[in-house]
Structure formats: C-alpha cells, structure tokens
What does this fold into?
Amino acid sequence: MTDGERLRTGIALSLFAHFLLFVGPWHMQEKPLHVEATISLDMESPAAMGKSRQGFGVSSPSEAAQEEARLADMKRRAYLRYLQDVDDAIHARRFIQGGEDLIGVAVCSFMIGADNRFSEPVLTSSSGDSRLDVAALAAVRAASGVVKRPRIIGDEKIPVTLQVKYQYGLR
It folds into this structure.
C-alpha cells in the first residue's frame, strides 16, 4: 500500500467515524427526568427540641479573635515593610567603596538586634568577584542601625539573608 492509499484510507475511516457519531443510536433527544424524593424529619433531634447541644450553623469569630487577627496582620505588614526598608538601605549604600563597574550578586547574612544594628554580617554566597563581595559586606555594615524598627514587631533578633545586587552602577 502506498502513502497516498494509506492517506485516503485514513481520511475515509475518519469521515465514517464522524458520521457514526452524529447519526448513531446514541444521538437521541433528551427527555425530562422526573424524580420523587421524600424528606423525613426526626423530631427528636437536638435542633428541633431546643436542647443545649447545637446543630449545624454559621457563626462569625468573636470580637477578641477578630482583634487578634487584625493585630497579627498589622504586625506581619510592619515586619515585611521593615525588611524592605532594610533592603533599600543596604542597596542605597552599595557603592560606598566604589565599584561602579561591578556586576553580580553577593548573598550576605546577618542578625538585626533590638537596637537596629546588624551583628555577625557574613558572606553566605560569593559573587565570584572579591571586590564585589567586599563592597557588599561594606554596604551591610554601613546600613547597620539606619532603619528604625517599628515597635509592633518587638525587639527580638531578626535573622536576615539578603542578595546584594550590582549592575554596573545602576541604582
């Protein structure tokens, strides 16, 4: 059988299969479905008798729970805003030691204390360029204590791991 004969046979079989889909016995009009249902109520259930046990229902959280959730949300937002401000302060000081010609990313880790100072800054992942690594650590040290911590997030130490990015002097 040649390629042309196989193609014609395939087309003919496809047309026949489609014909059967549209004309076959399974293509019938739908008849409305009639269903009868009986619902019986148990009059001795706690909901019907008014006993102390509660049935199903919808309830909203208490005022105290709503306030607790609102405060937790405010704390989370303040925490994230604070970390973004710390990131911005470090990136604003990237070029203190020069390095306008640097390109790459150095990852630094440090702890933020209650006094807003950064302790134990270390290079977690090198950029591959020692000048960039030194400049990144200098930027972290220079930003230490600059950003004031919101009172709502407390005074416990905050561990931070941050990518300090350099792109040929772009700020």
Observations:
- The mean pLDDT is 82.
- The CA atoms of residues 77 and 153 lie 10 Å apart.
